[in-house]
Write a structure and sequence with these properties.
Layout lengths: L9 E4 L4 H8 L8 H8 L1 H14 L3 E3 L7 H6 L6 H18 L6 E6 L14 H15 L5 E7 L2 H12 L4 E6 L15 H8 L6 E5 L3 H11 L6 E5 L25 H13 L4 E4 L5 H13 L3 E3 L3
Parallel strand pairs: 1-8, 1-9, 2-3, 3-4, 4-5, 5-6, 6-7, 7-8
Length: 308
């Protein structure tokens, strides 16, 4: 795909997928608390993944707390590990940034689905969700630069996580995950257009679509333009997410063979052409993918920045 050079345009470049990258590097058997368990058993792997994404060109990295909600920990018999896991994830992210001598790289906090990805029916009431997200946001806020509410499968999850994050007076971005059927629906079967409309009154700074196929994201990005906020995208590289269940392990999912760095780049350039100013990767998107995006955007005279 050809894209015109825009010397004045800025792009925020996110990192890629932590969990699947750890699967490739660790010798341990996958676990329901996969990325959190590796954080305790092999923290050097998590640090190295952060470093590799920074060196690939990412201007924002996200703390490795996606699977460290109290709800997941309680389900899997690790009730008392919440503070320890969050402390370790924050420490490792900061150490990676320091190791790279890149004070310009921002560290994002993570507000994930409480019980598991792609299962909005498992979330409790809105008020309960807000209360539970407050626990995470209060823990992370003193040590991060912004929040990303990511892989939100329903309007309720998005509302709750944004409410908790913005209460900490930090910049907050909301990333919604949509059906892979290219029908512009959240995984809750709520229309993406309805979600954007209902989220407009909240105080977040950007809307994104994440952890969906790049093809579905490309078709859905126009819905984000309903709002005047900056928008962006970071897709996954799974063949399908259908096999993943609550409490299951990610090794049941397979990766696409047609989404290497150059192929993913074409999707990223399409998003940039559509007006996206935040680009990155989710599950199965590696430092090599981010590096190709970084190099290409730099050649096209884009400024890679850490702020909107």
């Amino acid at each position: 795909m050809k894209i015109e050079s825009h010397s004045s345009k800025k792009i925020v470049l996110l990192d890629g997928g932590m969990g699947q990258e750890l699967m490739k590097r660790s010798k341990a058997k996958p676990h329901p608390l996969w990325s959190a368990k590796v954080l305790l058993d092999e923290p050097e792997l998590v640090e190295n993944v952060h470093i590799d994404f920074i060196e690939a060109g990412a201007s924002i990295i996200t703390v490795n707390t996606y699977s460290a909600t109290k709800e997941r920990l309680n389900r899997d018999g690790a009730e008392g590990m919440f503070n320890k896991l969050h402390d370790k994830a924050i420490e490792v992210a900061h150490r990676a940034r320091d190791q790279c001598k890149r004070s310009d790289v921002k560290i994002a906090g993570c507000l994930p689905p409480l019980y598991g990805s792609y299962k909005p029916e498992s979330a409790p009431s809105l008020d309960e969700c807000i209360e539970r997200y407050h626990i995470i946001s209060r823990k992370q806020a003193p040590y991060i630069d912004l929040f990303i509410c990511e892989t939100m499968s329903s309007i309720k999850e998005a509302q709750a996580s944004i409410t908790a994050a913005t209460s900490e007076n930090l910049e907050t971005w909301c990333a919604l995950t949509i059906s892979d059927q290219s029908n512009c629906m959240l995984r809750s079967n709520e229309p993406l257009e309805q979600a954007i409309d209902q989220l407009m009154k909240l105080g977040h700074s950007a809307n994104l679509i994440n952890c969906s196929t790049p093809e579905a994201i490309t078709l859905a990005l126009n819905c984000l333009k309903m709002d005047q906020r900056p928008f962006g995208a970071y897709a996954n590289g799974f063949d399908s997410i259908d096999a993943l269940s609550i409490g299951g392990t990610v090794d049941v999912l397979t990766s696409r063979k047609n989404l290497g760095p150059r192929a993913y780049l074409q999707h990223a350039l399409a998003w940039v052409t559509s007006g996206a100013t935040i680009i990155g990767g989710c599950c199965e998107i590696s430092p090599d993918h981010i590096k190709v995006i970084y190099d290409t955007l730099k050649k096209l005279d884009y400024k890679i920045t850490n702020s909107l």
